[in-house]
Amino acid sequence: MSGLNASLGYFLAVVVFAALVRTLFKRWPRFAFVLEFASSFMLVACRLEVQTIVEVGEWAGGLGPDVTLTVLFLVLLTHGVICGDASGNPTLVVLNFLQLEATTVATLLSVAAQFLGAHLALHVAAYYWTLELTDMHMIKNLMASECSTSLLVSVLEGFITECVCTLVLHLVLLNLRRRSALIRVPLIAVFLTFLSHIAKGYTSAYMSPSLSYGLTFQCPGFTFSQYAVVYWLGSLTGMILALLMYMGHIPRIFAKNLLYFEKTRFRVKKADKAEKKKAQPFFNYFSNQPSRKSE
Question: Is the Cβ–Cβ distance between 207 and 222 less than 8 Å?
Fold first, then answer.
């Protein structure tokens, strides 16, 4: 358990850094990209340590799958609580742009900051492993140059996996957007943990271009362009399909609703009036007949 104690100290240091950055910059909306930098850094740095626990800790540290899943859930839950609206996920930033909720400049700055945070997290985690505080980290340091890729299937299968997982995730996020954070954050953490677990033998379901860049792009087995097709193009395609299914159109590109047609009350009233006009002559015929009492 000494390896897990060292990991908890590492997690705490990363969380404190992200919380401090958020506290300093959240009052200035123009610096929202700095919050995305801190969010991406926290997510990638913590997920790199979770990956270490999964790859090394399960056989070198005696940590079972239940421990690794619990640690992953707690990391995702803490990330959601600390970072709030700063997701650290480029697909969510692009989603806001497509919904006309963010400008082009703000979107580009946020995406660049997210990748910068992921890159910095790689260097911080690598330095932490070189300290070799435990046997688990010593082994990880020796394996750092020959890490295991998360893409365990073909490029096409990986693209479909990331696309479907991202599609489902964004549909859930869009439906939970108006919910209270007390409900939304734990549900999303549970759902992300579930997707990561079931897709472990395929792509690990990162569903975030910056997260996948930090966790698997450095590993041998596939080229950079192949990783990009799976983890970047797959995630963006899933996000766009989710937005199209949820709204019926993409506001940034076109306003016409292609999937859903709403019937207004005005049209219904018109139909009711037409039916009444058709029935009126029938009733007038009987009302205009002369009375036969005189006969």
Answer: no
DSSP state of 29: G
- Matching residue, tokens 């989603």: 95
- What residues contact 108, with CB distance under 8 A and at least 6 apart? none
**H helices present in 84-180, as ranges:** 90-98, 104-130, 135-143, 155-176
Query: What are the respective helix, strand and coil percentages of the chain, to the nearest 5?
Result: 75, 0, 25
Residue 256 is encoded by which pair of tokens?
């016409």
> Can you give the pTM of this predicted structure?
0.85
Non-local (6+) Cβ contacts of 179 within 8 A are none
Instruction: Give the pair of three-digit tokens for residue 123.
Output: 């260097």
User: Quick one: DSSP state of residue 288?
Assistant: T
Q: In terms of residues, how long is the chain?
A: 295
Residue type, 225: S
Q: Contact at 8 Å (CB) between 36 and 117?
A: yes
**pLDDT by residue for the chain (295 residues), tens digit each?**
556 888 999 999 999 999 999 999 988 888 999 999 999 999 999 999 999 988 887 666 567 788 889 999 999 999 999 998 899 999 999 999 999 999 999 999 999 999 999 999 999 999 999 998 888 888 888 887 778 899 999 999 999 999 999 999 999 999 998 899 899 999 999 999 999 999 999 999 999 999 999 999 999 889 999 999 999 999 999 999 999 999 988 999 887 787 776 554 444 454 555 555 555 554 454 455 554 444 3
Q: How many other C-beta atoms lie within 10 A of the C-beta of residue 191?
A: 16
| Tokens, residue 199 | 């897709």
Q: What is the CA radius of gyration of the chain?
A: 27
